Automatic annotation (TrEMBL):
Highest taxon of source: Eukaryota
Membership in a protein family: Belongs to the protein disulfide isomerase family.
InterPro entries: Thioredoxin-like_sf
Sequence intervals crossing the membrane: none
Cited CDD domains: PDI_b'_family
Any one GO cellular component localisation term in the record: endoplasmic reticulum
Gene3D superfamilies: Glutaredoxin
PANTHER family hit by this protein: ENDOPLASMIC RETICULUM RESIDENT PROTEIN 27, PROTEIN DISULFIDE ISOMERASE
Pfam families from the UniProt entry: Thioredoxin_6
GO biological process: protein folding; response to endoplasmic reticulum stress
Protein name: ERP27 protein
Length: 142
C-alpha cells in the first residue's frame, strides 16, 4: 500500500485466519483513495463504513503539503476510516460537493459520512493539519 511494504510474521505461532484477514483488510487499500469514476465502486463497496473526504483543489499550490498531512492522519485511523480525496475541479465531483452543501469558496473541507445511517458532518478548513483531521474524526467517532 502506498509503496510501503508491510509484512505479517508468518513464523509466529499466534497467527490465525482472523489475524491474517485483519492484516489483509488493513493493508489492501491506499491510505488515501482518490475518488473518481474508476474508484467509486470500490469506495462504495468498502468494508469500512466511515468515509472521510478531503474536498479540495488539486491544482492549489498548497495541495502537496495538504496531502502529506492528510496521509499522515490516515495512518492514525487505518482500518477504522476510509480516507478519500475529492478533487473539486473535476466536473464529475460536483455532485459530491453539493451533497455536503458546500460551495467552492468554502474549500478545502473535510466531510465525514457513515454509510449505514447516512449520518454526516462537515468541517471547512483554512489549513489541513493532522490535528484538525484527528480532532474532527475523534469528535465524530464519539
Amino acid at each position: 500500500v502506498d509503496n510501503d511494504r508491510r509484512d505479517l510474521d508468518m513464523n509466529s505461532k499466534n497467527v490465525d485466519a482472523e489475524k491474517m484477514t485483519r492484516f489483509i483488510r488493513m493493508n489492501e487499500l491506499r491510505l488515501v483513495t482518490e475518488y473518481n469514476p474508476v474508484t467509486a465502486i470500490g469506495v462504495m463497496q468498502s468494508s469500512l463504513q466511515l468515509h472521510l473526504l478531503l474536498i479540495t483543489d488539486k491544482m492549489s499550490p498548497k495541495h502537496p503539503e495538504q496531502m502529506h498531512r492528510y496521509q499522515a492522519a490516515a495512518e492514525l485511523f487505518k482500518g477504522k476510516i476510509l480516507f478519500i480525496l475529492v478533487d473539486s475541479n473535476l466536473k464529475s465531483n460536483e455532485r459530491i460537493v453539493s451533497f455536503f452543501k458546500l460551495k467552492k469558496s468554502q474549500l478545502p473541507a473535510l466531510a465525514i459520512f457513515h454509510t449505514p445511517d447516512e449520518e454526516q458532518d462537515v468541517l471547512t478548513l483554512d489549513e489541513v493539519s493532522i490535528e484538525h483531521v484527528q480532532d474532527f474524526c475523534n469528535h465524530f467517532l464519539q
